[in-house]
């Protein structure tokens, strides 16, 4: 996976799906000041990168979840990637809304899925992990067997790893924060000074300031 992780990180930087701005940080919805912002939706607009991500997901799922029977995307950003994986693997696909519809069938889970069916949850990004685990819990409440979760990228927060461990839900990502920052330095997207600043943010993002 190391070769894939490095290549995915390079692609994310090249297409600006991940941007690094340590001197002019982004503000997340939570209010956290961040030198990094990730928008993996941009992958869908770049066929070469999109195909590489799908192929990499396929290898990951084959290696980690050989008994998979279906793919579950997390709305909204995980839906497209889940659909591509399901198509490549010739598997059923469903997706989980952030909340149930207020009209019609009032579905929270869209698509056809059976009790006991073994599925893998697909996200584009794992940050705090809360939205992913909400989807996992929704599926488990319907007695669906969630084997684990996969995503393109994670910030690798310790509290996130703890949440998944507590939920008994393994997760794997194609690339992660440490690999991407190292690739950014290696390919001159950031300076040595920026590198140190960005590394400090990950230690305590809630208190980090420029």
Structure in words:
The chain has one domain: Rossmann fold. Helix 5 (158-166) links the parallel strand 10 (145-154) and strand 11 (171-176). The protein contains seven helices and eleven strands. By secondary structure, the protein is an alpha/beta fold. It is 41% helix and 21% strand. The mean pLDDT is 93. The strands form three sheets. Strands 5, 6, 7, 8, 9, 10 and 11 form a seven-stranded mixed beta sheet that branches. The chain has helices spanning 2-14, 47-64, 77-89, 130-141, 158-166, 177-186, 192-203, and strands spanning 18-20, 26-27, 33-34, 36-38, 70-74, 93-96, 109-110, 118-122, 125-126, 145-154, 171-176. The longest helix has 18 residues, at 47-64.
SSE ordering: HEEEEHEHEEEEHEHEHH
CATH class: Alpha Beta
Q: Specify the CATH architecture.
A: 3-Layer(aba) Sandwich
Strand content: 15-25%
Determine the N-to-C terminus distance.
34 Å
Mean pLDDT: 93
* Number of alpha- plus pi-helical segments: 7
Helicity level: 40-55%
Q: Which regions have little confidence, pLDDT < 50, spanning 5+ residues?
A: none
Number of domains: 1
Class from secondary-structure proportions: alpha/beta
